[in-house]
Amino acid sequence: MDWQGQKVVELWMQVMLLVFAVVAFVTGYITASFRTMMLIYAGGVVFTSLVTVPNWPFFNRHPLKWLDPSEAEKHPKPQPQAVASKDKKKSSKK
Major place of localization (predicted)? Predict the structure, then answer.
């Protein structure tokens, strides 16, 4: 799954769980049944999981292009530069 697919999945998951929560609450309130509310919400969680957890092909529409190892050797990784701290400067003046 690519980065854009992860973003879409995250959005779908939030929207679907919210919709199922609202539907479950309203249904449970109307029928005055906590059990019905929980069953509807649990079914929504299972359905949401089945839609969002597997790596479906439509979540991989923008695959990443990685460098070949030979190409990576041509472009060396930048080395971090050492920064002199203020404590060292103060101690050297004494």
Answer: endoplasmic reticulum
